Amino acid sequence: MKKLPIGIQTFEKIREGNYAYIDKTEVALKLASEGDYYFLSRPRRFGKSLFLDTLKDLFEGKKNLFEGLAIHDQWDWSVTSPVIRVSFGAGVHDNVDALDTTIQQILKGNAKRLGLTCHDTGDVKYQFAQLLEAACEKHGKVVILVDEYDKPILDNISDEETARAMRDRLKNFYSVIKDSDAFIKFVFITGVSKFSKVNLFSGLNNLEDITLNPHYATICGYTHLDLQTTFKAHLQGADMVEVKDWYNGYNYLGEKVYNPFDILLFISNGVDRFNSYWWSTGNPGFLVELLKSKTYFIPELSHYQADSVVLDSFDVDHIDLVALLWQTGYLTIDHEEKTPFGSVYHLALPNREIRLSLNRLFINYLTTQTGEVLSYQKSLYEVLVKGDVDALEGIFTRLFASIPYQTFTNNKLQDYEGYYTSVIYAYLASLGFEIISEDCTNRGRIDITLKIEGKVYLFEVKVTDKATQEASGDKALAQIQSRQYAQKYQGAGEVYCVGLTFSKQTRNLAGVVWEKLDLVAFLQESPLGEVELDMARDKDLPRDI
């Protein structure tokens, strides 16, 4: 059984060290044969660095490393090219002087490897241009591979002034590529975010963005076939339905892929231990900062719609949370809708890992609760599975009572229905079951729909000025009843309609009214409405590998 390449980004080490490897060389051949300048955006730890290193060894003509791979008999190994590799993946840069020092070290390292001299002029733009010209003169046209091109900016995303300074310095550095076209054979730039060409790659009009090109949808990540072949022996005994639910779901307009880091850690930790491996290695603190700086309705983020203008752009001066969530891997494309005015992308959370972890982050942001979250989660799960809505009222009351008063200070969160809906949604979503916000029916929208172990809960949320039980949830429940929301879930299990009313004065529940529906009787008394059964589990996918 081959070893797992956890954290290994060096193609040569993988090929010579008996590590499992997913052959991406056919994609590399297509890129090299059909174009010259490419850009790719993918989340962190998705295999971008390994792919760049594969390109490096390919252009340097290391034929022995490609024995048995798709490209071996299709590449002209008699032709080699000098490669300049630039990576900002290591360390954190908190000022432009530190960035300049790193760039100078990178350029000197490349010069030494190519047998050239890199003069320290203090101007990194001039040094880069000089290196390209010298490399071309001595070895032929140059291949430029840039990894984590945007990391110095993202490292400072919560400090706009420093982030702008990083952007401007990098823009100056990257401008050399446009001016040195005569010396260049091939360029491949990767990163997480998608800064517009105007903002960072001014003049590089021939830079082809393959991020959403269906031909390159699986350039990074693992396909299900990869799991069934390369990792078949490693995944013996694994519940493949659960594996897919936890770690698959990333869609770049082609076949959906698994998070490769998650798969490797899942195998390494035993194939019965499902955890948020990828999430735990990152620091999504920038999300909280963005949430604080602007008003976002949390449930809406899980089913957002965006066009290519939103997804394809990112800038320090105009940070769009949805675009950043998509680019960083916390949202994915559920499906593409063709319209007369262009494609509309329906976004969704990719898998259970993100659903659980992101909503846990939202809980912390909305309530500042930390240690008590698990206790509330367990209590919610127990009463929802039992159908004990009366006990649910007590849990919600304690939950909102435990939110610190300071959370409401200097704002009017208590006045907004969206705040209470967001807290409830985040807690229910963090349980890991199917949840729908603003669930559309043929008569309107349900605030929150939760499907949990044979039961369906329909929640409607209202806010009142009153402080006591007089302000009951009658109005909310009446809305569910009058619009016949429950018809949609005929045959889906026991259906509970729950009206929740919150008080602006007490910042807590003022009343709960609920009923368990007898759908047979209910439907006999009303016209047949929309029937839609959306089963969460994939019945066609075998549970074993």
From TrEMBL:
Lineage of the species this protein comes from: Bacteria, Pseudomonadati, Pseudomonadota, Gammaproteobacteria, Thiotrichales
Question: Which PANTHER family does the record match to this protein?
Answer: AAA-ATPASE-LIKE DOMAIN-CONTAINING PROTEIN, CONSERVED PROTEIN, WITH A WEAK D-GALACTARATE DEHYDRATASE/ALTRONATE HYDROLASE DOMAIN
- Alphabetical list of InterPro entries matching this protein: AAA-ATPase-like_dom, PDDEXK_9
Return the Pfam families for the record. AAA-ATPase_like (PF09820), PDDEXK_9 (PF08011)
Q: Which organism is it from?
A: Leucothrix pacifica
Tell me the ranges covered by the AAA-ATPase-like domain, including all copies: 5-201
**Name of the protein this chain belongs to:** AAA-ATPase-like domain-containing protein
